[in-house]
Specification:
Largest sheet: 22 strands, antiparallel, barrel
Oligomer: single chain
Radius of gyration: 30 Å
Number of helices: 8
Distance between the termini: 56 Å
Length: 935
């Protein structure tokens, strides 16, 4: 495999030979004086382009002082420039989209035309303005469409919406924004979202840098939303340049200071419910050849994570973030830009009523253990320089490097027995690092009907995992039982159970739950292990698992978007060579067709992609090689596997329809089939989550989005989607069998029948409140699968293992749940409601078991595929009211804003005893006030 990779690296440059030949000689400089002038001012990231040109009169003479406006009506993106003494203008850092370019000057006829920015190749325009007469009219070309002739379904977001959208999570605001604005996304707790039926098969491309590891706030620290200029969220079949995690791809363009010759920035602070306080600042400054943008953010809150109780306790956290982007023009044709970020977060693992440990004593010392006090700390470092060279008017070469490191520390309670809970039998300490390093290069070529791109990326991900655990559950591996069958502490092996001074004890019978001597060496509930039980050669106490691997990936691609009349053909092929704990290579064709029916404002499209889905890197070594450890294998069900990458075929068909001047509707049908489908399991209530692999998965669904662009101060969007997540047994790899090996498919816990978002915003546009706005969100979720909810069913298609009878009637055994877990699920038996301290009867008639928070299938109707238990539907309402220009000063301005999340204080769950993340409630009503100073 290593030799194959070496050959591929040496052969990678040959990929560029597949690009059509250049129509101008490559000299290392832009061809022509105008192109050179434009290139001198151009600075691109990997996800943004440049529009430049000259404004002239009919004779070709320069028109200085002309106003040049570039607008994308669909997203609200607007840039305004004034032409220089030579009539020249340059607009940089433009997200890839179609735009309306309007040029005006006193005494001349205004000119407007459409400009499609689709690559790094600078677009150069010479705009000749006609002299105004009494009969002059605006010269409009291809007039302002809201639709795009694009085979790939995607959502475009600009800075204006990012700034003003009411979002739930200050610690993972990017995830919240994606969840609210992108159809096909299922919301989950702690900033996690499930894109198009997959768990965390999402990728962020930050100015071209691939970030494919998990971005939930319990895994990593995200780039602050203050640093984002725009996002393109791709939900359709990805083009060849995107790989690894492709269910949803967020292409992010960061803010730049280039061209900001007068410093601009802001300082904001806020305070709200749960003692949440923030302080942030940003500054943009630069010239025509350089620029710097920096954003600083700090947060402290009493509700950092979404807890397993609606009430909030032991949930404090803080986060600090710094992001810096530097742009520099090295020569007339060459520029460089660098992104740098460092973030640190510290937070507590939220407690439940169970883990308050009221009245619980240490089984060894006999003293109160106190409440659980588990904490985490994450440090994230990211550095990514990129150099861009304009070869000529048609082509650009882009090259970059990147290094991103997540260092994760998890700390147990000071008293290890405080960590013992209903779903956690171990105390755990963890330190792990995930360091992703790589090199990338791409070549863009635009000429005539072709918009081509070829690229190569080589990355290496270094994983280090250090886990230390000890058993704190006295029943897990007890050698002795009393007369009632309960475990007895104070013994080291079963032979001691029959001593004369213990007449009512018995050895733990192997037929029920065998005693495992090896686990006894790490059982903290028993006296120090002795040589009599085989621990002499071991260090008694916590067991240490130390894992390391280096995951290598070489990716190459070629793609071309060919415009032919009203058609656009997208053709591409990608090759991935994966060398992790398993070795795989795969050719991945990508193809799409879009047709623009211009008379009706309709775009019809279809696309196909074959993709390699690489395994999750988080705790990958533990999940794959833990089976080789007798201790791990004895503690957790285990399926040995080296985790082969998944092979996916996905098909999309959709349309985009413009309705009038201000409304556009976009819809997509999705069908994905994957061999080796991935999900996650978790060790107890800890954040030690690890990948597991199933035989295959099928994900069908649809996604619809509708946008109303600004009209009379009013804007709105609507998203609607239904995406299934059907997985098929058997489990073929990983620790922790998360569902029974039932025949047929089952719905994974992020399957959701329907969800939608309605966002509306109104700007008053009247003096003295002409800059005030009111924003409103309504988010509806029909509810994710809740597979751990007790139900009744004894048929071959049911999976209700707690089914029993009471007086000859169908009944459900609830003894496996604590009182608090019954309360968390909102369970009611007849007219008895569970409370955190008072459990329901151990057995409840199936006809009488109901819930206020979960849907329990009627007796005998549960089916893992067609009728699983689910979280009850919920509707959450958010509101924001603000004014960005309180005093209408041209240079210095104040802003104020009030945001209300969960306006109706809805009492609802995200999930219940999820195999990935446990139980979590939605945020209670929270109110935040913010003020800002802008200059």
């Amino acid at each position: 495999m290593y030799s194959s990779i070496r050959r591929a690296v040496f052969l990678a440059p040959a990929i560029f030979l597949l690009i059509p030949p250049l129509h101008a000689q490559s000299t290392g400089k832009a061809v022509g004086p105008k192109a050179r002038a434009a290139a001198a001012k151009a600075s691109q990231s990997g996800t943004a382009g440049t529009v430049s040109g000259y404004v002239t009169d009919p004779s070709g003479a320069a028109i200085p002082g002309a106003t040049v406006v570039l607008v994308d009506a669909a997203t609200g993106f607007t840039r305004t420039m004034i032409s220089g003494p030579d009539g020249g203008f340059t607009v940089t850092n433009i997200p890839f989209n179609p735009y309306r370019l309007t040029v005006s000057a006193p005494g001349f006829v205004e000119s407007a035309q459409t400009v499609a920015v689709r690559s790094l190749v600078p677009i150069n325009q010479t705009i000749a303005l006609a002299i105004a007469t009494s009969n002059s009219v605006v010269n409009v070309q291809a007039g302002g469409d809201l639709i795009e002739t694009d085979p790939t379904f995607h959502t475009d977001l600009d800075r204006t919406l990012i700034d003003e959208l009411p979002v739930e999570s200050a610690t993972s605001s990017l995830s919240s924004i994606v969840t609210l604005t992108t159809p096909g996304v299922s919301a989950d707790s702690n900033g996690l979202f499930h894109g198009l039926g997959d768990h965390a098969e999402n990728a962020f491309y930050l100015d071209g840098e691939p970030i494919t590891d998990q971005q939930s706030k319990v895994f990593s620290n995200q780039v602050p939303s203050d640093a984002v200029q725009s996002m393109e969220v791709i939900s359709g079949a990805p083009t060849a340049e995107y790989g690894e995690k492709t269910s949803l791809v967020a292409v992010i363009t960061t803010r730049s200071g280039q061209g900001v010759t007068t410093p601009h920035g802001d300082v904001t602070t806020s305070y709200g419910t749960f003692g949440t306080a923030t302080l942030g600042a940003s500054l943009a400054y630069g010239g025509t050849r350089w620029g710097n943008f920096i954003a600083l953010d700090g947060l402290r809150t009493g509700r950092f994570l979404d807890p397993a109780e609606f009430a909030v306790f032991h949930d404090r956290g803080n986060e600090e973030n710094v992001f810096d982007r530097v742009d520099a023009q090295l020569s007339q044709a060459t520029s460089i830009h660098t992104d740098a970020q460092y973030s640190r977060s510290w937070f507590q693992t939220p407690n439940t009523y169970d883990t308050l440990n009221t009245g619980v004593v240490d089984p060894v010392a006999g003293k109160p253990v106190g409440q659980a006090d588990q904490r985490s700390q994450i440090g994230t470092l990211d550095f990514a320089p990129t150099i861009t060279h304009v070869i000529n008017d048609n082509s650009v070469l882009n090259a970059g490097a990147f290094v991103r490191r997540d260092a994760y520390n998890y700390y147990p309670s000071n008293n290890p027995f405080a960590d013992y809970g209903p779903i956690q039998q171990e105390t755990l300490r963890q330190f792990r690092t995930l360091t992703n390093t790589g090199l990338r290069a791409d070549y863009s070529y635009v000429h005539g009907a072709h918009n081509a791109k070829a690229g190569v990326t080589y990355q290496s991900t270094f994983l280090n995992e250090n886990d230390y655990l000890g058993i704190v559950d006295p029943t897990l591996n007890a050698p002795c039982l009393n007369a009632q069958g309960q475990p007895i502490n104070g013994f080291n092996n079963p032979s001691q159970c029959l001593f004369p001074n213990q007449p009512n004890t018995a050895a733990n019978p192997a037929a029920t739950k065998p005693f495992i001597p090896l686990l006894g060496c790490f059982d903290l509930t028993r006296p120090t292990a002795s040589s009599n039980d085989g621990c002499a050669s071991l260090t008694a106490g916590n067991y240490a698992f130390l894992g390391h691997t280096d995951v290598k990936l070489l990716s190459m691609y070629v793609q071309d978007a060919i415009t032919k009349g009203n058609f656009l053909f997208s053709l591409g092929i990608r090759g991935d060579l994966y060398n992790g704990l398993a070795v795989a290579r795969m050719p991945e064709p990508r193809v799409g067709i879009a047709y623009n029916v211009k008379k009706t404002g309709t775009v019809l499209r279809t696309s196909y992609a074959r993709t390699m889905e690489t395994p999750f890197n988080e705790n990958l070594v533990l999940s794959s090689r833990g089976c080789n450890s007798a201790v791990i294998a004895d503690l957790i069900p285990c399926v040995p596997s080296n985790f082969n990458p998944g092979q996916r075929n996905e098909f999309h068909a959709g349309l985009q329809q413009q309705l009038g001047k201000h409304v556009v509707v976009n819809g997509d049908y999705i069908w994905k089939y994957t061999h080796n489908g991935y999900d996650f399991s978790v060790l107890g209530a800890t954040p030690v989550t690890f990948p597991i692999e199933w035989k295959n998965s099928k994900i069908p669904g649809f996604a619809i989005g509708a946008n109303l662009t600004q009209t009379h101060g009013f804007t709105a969007f609507v998203t609607l989607s239904s995406v299934a997540a059907r997985f098929f047994s058997p489990q073929i790899g990983g620790l922790g069998t998360t569902v029974g090996q039932v025949p047929g498919p089952f719905r994974i816990d992020h399957d959701e029948r329907f969800n939608s978002t309605v966002h509306a915003q109104y700007s008053l546009q009247r003096t003295p409140l002409k800059n005030a706005y009111l924003g409103f969100n309504m988010r509806f979720d029909s509810g994710n699968v809740a597979g751990q909810v007790p139900c009744y069913g004894v048929g071959p298609t049911n999976d209700c293992p707690l089914s029993t009878t009471l007086g000859g009637q169908p009944a459900i055994n609830l003894s496996g749940l604590t009182a608090d877990e019954e309360f968390q699920a909102g369970l009611i038996c007849g007219n008895i409601k569970a409370s955190p301290t008072q459990a329901l009867p151990a057995t409840c008639l199936a006809s009488q078991l109901t819930s206020s928070l979960v849907n329990i299938p009627a007796p005998g109707t549960e089916n893992d595929d067609h009728n699983p238990p689910r979280i009850k539907p919920r509707s959450l309402f958010d509101l924001s009211l603000g004014d960005d220009h309180l005093f209408h000063s041209p240079k210095h301005e104040m802003s104020a804003r009030v945001t209300v999340i969960n306006l109706s204080n809805k009492y609802a769950l995200y999930n219940f005893l999820s195999t990935f993340s446990g139980t979590h409630y939605v945020t209670p009503r929270s109110i935040t006030g913010e003020i800002g100073f802008h200059f």
